[in-house]
Task: structure prediction
Amino acid sequence: MSLADHHWFELLKKEIADTYGITYPSCQLPVEEWKGQDIVNFQEELIKKVKGRISEKWFYTHIKSRNEKLPRIDMLNMLSQYAGYQDWRDFVNQKQHSTKENEVKAEQNPLKPIGEVKEIKQEKRSFLNKKRAVFVILGSIISIFIAFLLIFKQKSTYSACFSGLNGSNLIENAKIEVRILKEKESPLPVACKGGCFEYKTSDKFIRYSIQSPYYQPDTITRSLTQKSTNEQIVLKTNDYALMIHFFSTSSVNDWITRRKQLDDMIAADAKIYQVYEDGSGMEMYNKEEFVNKLTMPLQSLKNVEIMETNYAGGRISVLRFTQKDTGK
Result:
C-alpha cells in the first residue's frame, strides 16, 4: 500500500466511525478499537444499508490491523458507499478536491506572527491538559464506585450444555450462537464452545436466545437462586436445513425425487442468499435457481453449509448459506 493509499484508507475508516456513530451515538471509539457487539452491529449496518457483508476475520485483518495491502476494490466501494459516497474513486476524488481547496485558502490568508502562533498553541495545550486532568479524576471516581458495587454484589454462575432430542449426546460440532437478553440493552453474545457456555451475573434471573443453523431457535429464562447452576438444554433439529446439507454432500441418482422434495420444503417466493466463504459479499437466488444449483451433479456445487433459515407456513421463506471450497 502506498503512502497515499494508506492516507485515504485511514480517512475512510474515520468517516465509517462517524457514520456508525449516527446510528449508535453511545460508541465514540475509533473503528480500530471496536470489538464484540460493535462489530456485530456494523455487520448488520452493512447488510441493511448497502446489502454487503464482511466477516469478523476480515474486519480484524483489514480494519483493526495495519495491512500492507489495500482491501479489494469491491470491499472499498462497499465501505465508501456506507460512508455516503458513490464508490472508492468518488471518496478519493472528493478528499483530494477538499485538500486542494484548503491549500489555496492557506496561501490566500496572511500568516500570523510566530509569537502569536506559539501563544495560541500554548493556550491550547494548557486547556487540553486541564481537560485531561478532569477526565482522569472523574474516571478514577467512577472506577472506585464501580469496584465498590462489584464487591458488594453477589454473583451467580450459570452454565448450560446443549444436546439433541435423545438428550444423551452434546452438540459439540454445530455452530451455536448464545445471546444474553436484557431489558433496554442490545443482545450480548456469549462464547459457546464444545456445546456449552458459562455466564456470571449478579442479576436474579437470566434470559438468553439460542440460534443454530441445524437446530430450531429457542429462548430460555431461568431464575438464579443459587451461586452455581448447571443444566442441559435439549434442542429440536431443523429438519429442512439438515436435509439440504445432506442433499449437497450425498450422491443421489433420482434427481426428480430430490427436486420434488426441495420444492415441497421451500416457499415459492423464498429469498435465498449465498454468503461467500471469504467474506467478500453475497449472491441472491430465487427458488428455481437454488433447486437447480442443488440438483446439478457437479462436484463444484457440493458442501452447502446452512447459516440461517426462517419459515412461513411450514416452508422455508428465508435461507442463508455458504459453500465450502472443495478445492482446498
Summary: DSSP finds nine helices and eleven strands in the chain.
